[in-house]
């Protein structure tokens, strides 16, 4: 009897392992909901305060420096004057420190595929790429990140 119960328990555990995901994929669209409060649902932004997430995003996502900047904006925040599409923005974006690397990649990928639809072809962000950039930028402040904007391909 004891062996039968053990077998049933082991079988149930094996079945549960097969049916439950070990790591559910982050939902970039759902995460973007927190971004939409400022950047709007369509990514149009608010003139002078919160920049639009369009062609400028795609341009930045096409270079290593730009990908670093975009990742750091999410993980470290950004502050200070920047220009997007030739227009000045002086708002502040707080770091989204509660997002793990998979969630940061997911939200950046959502923006790059569903919000920013013009500009260069979009290459998705990988969780490992985000992890490396986050670790390398851990000492940066939001003001430091803002200073990276122009050199990262910001318009």
Topology (elements, then pairings):
Layout: H1 2-19, H2 28-39, H3 55-60, H4 64-76, E1 82-84, E2 87-89, H5 101-115, H6 127-136, H7 142-147
Antiparallel strand pairs: 1-2
Helix pairs in contact: 2-5, 5-6
Written overview of the protein:
With 155 residues, the protein is mainly alpha-helical. It has helices spanning 2-19, 28-39, 55-60, 64-76, 101-115, 127-136, 142-147; strands spanning 82-84, 87-89. 52% of the residues lie in helices and 4% in strands. It has a two-stranded antiparallel ribbon. Helix 2 (28-39) packs across helix 5 and helix 5 packs across helix 6. It is globular. The model is unreliable at 1-23 (pLDDT under 50).
Strand portion, in percent? under 5%
Order of strands, main sheet, comes to: 1-2
**Overall pLDDT metric:** 86
| Helicity range | 40-55%
- What is the terminal separation in angstroms? 73 Å
Low-confidence stretches: 1-23
Topology, number of strands: 2
Q: Structural class per helix/strand content?
A: mainly alpha
Assembly type: single chain
**Helices and strands, in N-to-C order?**
HHHHEEHHH
Global shape = globular
Radius of gyration (CA) equals 20 Å
The largest sheet, given as strand count, sense and whether it forms a barrel, is:
2 strands, antiparallel
- Total of DSSP H or I helical runs spanning 4+ residues: 7
